[in-house]
Amino acid sequence: xxxxxxxxxxxxxxxxxxxxxxxxxxxxxxxxxxxxxxxxxxxxxxxxxxxxxxxxxxxxxxxxxxxxxxxxxxxxxxxxxxxxxxxxxxxxxxxxxxxxxxxxxxxxxxxxxxxxxxxxxxxxxxxxxxxxxxxxxxxxxxxxxxxxxxxxxxxxxxxxxxxxxxxxxxxxxxxxxxxxxxxxxxxxxxxxxxxxxxxxxxxxxxxxxxxxxxxxxxxxxxxxxxxxxxxxxxxxx
Length: 237
Description:
By secondary structure, the chain is an alpha/beta fold.
């Protein structure tokens, strides 16, 4: 067991659940709302880090976290109970394809760091196959779930590999989900972007498009832009 420390909460981690990474920190920090969200759904919660970030950021929101993995749900629930927001956080084992049919509630915000590497070789560890591969949840299923459970004026926030973004965007459009904001992320200022953070919604608006590099060129030190974005969460910024 290891601990990932944030300013206002700790995340217990183990070898059975995919650990907190830069993708999660970027997505949670980048998520924002122009209103006070009352309910938030975290799809594929893992350790629960994104749900915890939402609880810190949105003080009035009730956050429901779901994951198909029993090990992930048990770990997330432990992290929730040990946080300052245990009364606003809940974790449940569920397949989102079934969850969306059994629950009629619509959410102000839906957030997901979804499975990826669908075209790559599956890792040997079964828990990582589920956590980071399009094996139990593909992009089409995720987008369908978002379209079925998002409030008409709500927003969904996702992070996907840059090389599948066009496919993801096209699939979202077929479900009337429009891009409202984009963040292209690269390792260095001279690197091609390898991740895309997207804010999706049903409302049509001119999409705001920006970029960010994670590290200062030639170093492993986080860039000032990354530090500013994540400073409310990273304990050392």
